[in-house]
Amino acid sequence: MSLSEATLFYQAHHYLRGCSNSAMAYAVYKAGESRMIACVAFQTPVSENVRCSVFGPEYKRNVAELGRLAICPAVNIQASSFMSRVIKAYANDRQRKGLSPISALISFADTAQGHHGGVYQAMSWIYTGQSLSYSTVYTDPTGRRRHRRQNGANITTEEARFRGWTVAGERGIKHRYIKILGSKRHKRKMKKILCLEVLPYPKD
Residue 112: pLDDT band by 50, 70, 90 thresholds? Predict the structure, then answer.
């Protein structure tokens, strides 16, 4: 699906109201209709440190982020089943395009939005604790939230003002989840070199 379609969906159903321009998005539509009812977008984590934190610098190219998940309210869809399908599709599409294979996905549940990662727990993702971040978050003229790092470079306060962005606040605490991908043998190998501590799931 196109990123423009995904962005329109996120504007209506996700608090960040958009996704990365380099994301790969996947959707499910209501049976017999063209109406999108769920969408997932994958992207390269904005921080190189985040990628390196999973398995170390050697495997930073093999870590991607599940950056957006949104589902229409009051829709009868099993999120974990949908996500399992699109994760496989994403891995296959990367292989088809000759991109680096993905050994792990990382995703964050924003406590400021009341999220604790229930869908990741249902899919047996690994919980690796809380991520603390205090970088500035902006809101652009369309109401979309923007991270200060764009296209590999940090946006200065002056540049943000020039773009018409206003400070939305500081990023806070997020729950961090990891999903290791690949064959059983590959998963065992990557679990042994996981740099992050595996912790019990948070309840809220």
Answer: confident
Tokens of 17: 């109201």
Greater confidence, 170 or 4?
4
Q: Report yes or no: 59 and 180 within 8 Å, Cβ to Cβ.
A: no
87 touches 181 (CB < 8 A): yes
pTM of the complete model: 0.78
Residue pLDDT, tens place only, 37-57: 889 999 988 688 889 999 999
45: closest CA among 16, 23, 28, 75?
23
Determine contact, residues 129/117, Cβ cutoff 8 Å.
no
Kindly report, residue by residue over 166-177, the tens digit of the pLDDT.
Answer: 776 656 688 999
* Distance between CA atoms of residues 146 and 128, nearest Å: 25
CA separation for the pair 165, 148 (Å, rounded): 10
DSSP 111: G
Domains, the chain, with CATH or none: 3-131+177-192 (3.40.630.30), 134-171 (no CATH)
